[in-house]
Structure to design on (585 residues):
């Protein structure tokens, strides 16, 4: 079975982000980039499916500028067989729908049996591409999956999705799309051999024209980025524990009216 | 295009809309000048539920009642709402940030070929255009976004928007539109209920108590649960505590867990790593208790106590009990 994993390169959580010139995007100078954590669960699960079946191919795909190669290389080091880099300035302003359209075109070329994504990318936290890709392809999809099993002949996936109050288990005819939630697995660290081997693996660059699609203007655009309003200064309550606790409860009731 | 805002109903699966719908309907009404309609996909609506939507201010309920709508499947829900939207041309379609609506609304936006703004915390009409505000980059920045065309599709973060005031006796017209028969591709197998804690759901709770690495072990969360029962709070955990295996992942607050925005957040032994702050920084009142005066959480806390949580928690539970028994 061929499995495609769509990943996104995002700033590391701990990285400081600053608003860039123009005010609509961040200044990327000095940013540490990582593979979005949920996407690592997706990569890991794809590799486990391949290992369990003893055959197949895992292909990582990502949309973004040149720096994205580094993220794809990390996926190859984890064990993906090859990678596809959707690298075209025409996608610079891509919103989730434009991204999903580009990915849908890749899926039509590659015809995978299964697509895995992370639940959401931790930069814009939109969490939309998986469902939008499923919609454009007319495939079923399951969000926030905590476990999955592919049947022996590769016709159906059984997936447990996390919902409020429990897990819901569904059978999805393949091809289908699954969005990984934390808890699905524990992603592996690349081995030295994996890192060395990744250098020889193929990362294919594709432009919109290679996919036979025209990049469209985004349906959702950033008007401006802003710093969040500062929180009012807080107060550390002094005194021994019983005194401080009494004052805290008083303040929560009378000042903050929070209890 | 009429100026009608639609609100997709999040319910408790037992026929009642969840209270987050008061917030969604309230905000939609504010933006549309009261032209708010609810779209309810369910296998079992109730008269009490319909009454509730009317009293929150929905002027009409599009009731899509069919066994195929439960349990929720995005392809079925998005198909039904898109079909109805094609006939009725709403100006906007709002949902709540819940596990199912996040997915359904994304799929719906793709079917309609329009933009989606997920997890919004504010809206403003700028001329004839809606502009949404949403946290990005772990809440370190806010992004203001706008749509190229309508309907404007968005999801709203729970506990952020002012809920609609209940208007006793106000009713909604109930319409049961005839739509194509839903064709589900996914086959439902089973639902596995979580062992109930008897406490509110994390993402929706008005008060959240969170325990971090300072809890020292899974056995100690019982003291937080005792407090939670007194004040009606949900109990969550930091990533450090979840990764240590002390709490199941569904209780994790933060960037790789749940995003919460309660009226009151109480953190015990939580250091306040950026990834945790990403999931709770829009809380209205933040209380932090930590032995370490340098813990970053004190930078965003409204009230802090620098002390051993194991001394503070029992004392605080006792004081809350006294206060609430009055």
């Amino acid at each position: 079975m061929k499995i495609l994993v769509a990943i996104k390169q995002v700033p590391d959580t701990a990285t400081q982000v600053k608003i860039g010139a123009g005010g609509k995007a961040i200044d990327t100078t000095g940013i540490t980039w990582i593979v979005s954590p949920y996407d690592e669960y997706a990569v890991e699960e794809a590799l486990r499916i391949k290992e369990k079946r003893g055959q197949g191919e895992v292909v990582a795909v990502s949309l973004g500028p040149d720096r994205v190669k580094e993220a794809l290389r990390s996926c190859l080091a984890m064990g993906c067989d090859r990678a596809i880099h959707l690298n075209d300035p025409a996608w610079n302003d891509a919103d989730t729908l434009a991204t999903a359209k580009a990915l849908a075109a890749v899926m039509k070329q590659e015809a995978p049996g299964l697509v895995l994504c992370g639940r959401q990318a931790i930069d814009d936290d939109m969490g939309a591409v998986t469902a939008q890709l499923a919609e454009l392809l007319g495939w079923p999809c399951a969000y926030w999956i905590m476990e999955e099993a592919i049947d022996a002949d590769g016709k159906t996936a059984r997936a447990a999705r996390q919902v409020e109050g429990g897990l819901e288990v569904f059978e999805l005819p393949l091809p289908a799309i699954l969005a990984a939630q934390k808890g699905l697995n524990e992603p592996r660290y690349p081995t030295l051999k994996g890192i060395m081997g990744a250098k020889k693996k193929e990362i294919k660059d594709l432009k919109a024209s290679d996919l036979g699609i025209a990049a469209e203007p985004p349906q959702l655009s950033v008007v401006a980025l802003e710093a969040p309003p500062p929180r009012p200064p807080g107060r550390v309550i002094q005194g021994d524990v019983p005194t401080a606790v009494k004052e805290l409860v008083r303040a929560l009731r009378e000042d903050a009216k929070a209890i | 295009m009429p100026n009608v805002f639609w609100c997709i109903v999040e319910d408790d699966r037992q026929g009642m809309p969840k209270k987050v719908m008061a917030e969604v309907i309230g905000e939609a009404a504010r933006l549309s000048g009261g032209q708010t309609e609810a779209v309810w996909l369910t296998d079992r609506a109730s008269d009490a539920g319909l009454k509730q939507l009317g009293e929150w201010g929905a002027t009409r309920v599009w009731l899509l009642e069919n066994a195929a709508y439960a349990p929720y499947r995005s392809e079925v829900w998005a198909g039904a709402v898109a079909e109805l939207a094609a006939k009725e041309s709403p100006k906007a379609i709002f949902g709540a940030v819940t596990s199912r609506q996040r997915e359904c609304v994304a799929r719906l936006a793709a079917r309609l070929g329009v933009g989606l703004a997920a997890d919004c915390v504010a809206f403003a009409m700028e001329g004839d255009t809606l502009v949404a505000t949403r946290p990005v980059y772990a809440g370190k920045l806010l992004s203001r976004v706008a749509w190229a065309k309508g309907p404007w599709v968005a999801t709203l973060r729970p506990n952020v928007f002012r809920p609609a005031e209940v208007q006793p006796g106000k009713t909604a017209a109930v319409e049961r539109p005839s739509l194509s028969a839903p064709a589900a591709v996914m086959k439902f197998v089973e639902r596995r209920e979580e062992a109930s804690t008897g406490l509110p759901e994390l993402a929706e709770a008005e008060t959240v108590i969170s325990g971090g690495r300072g809890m020292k072990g899974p056995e100690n969360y019982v003291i937080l649960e005792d407090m939670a029962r007194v004040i009606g709070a949900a109990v969550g955990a930091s990533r450090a505590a979840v990764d240590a295996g002390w709490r199941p992942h569904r209780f994790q607050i933060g960037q790789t867990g749940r995003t919460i925005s309660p009226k009151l957040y109480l953190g015990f032994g939580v250091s306040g790593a950026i990834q945790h702050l990403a999931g709770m920084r829009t809380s209205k009142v933040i209380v932090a208790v930590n032995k370490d005066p340098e813990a970053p959480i004190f930078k965003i806390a409204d009230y802090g106590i620098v002390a051993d949580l194991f001394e503070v928690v029992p004392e605080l539970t006792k004081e809350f009990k006294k206060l609430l028994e009055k």
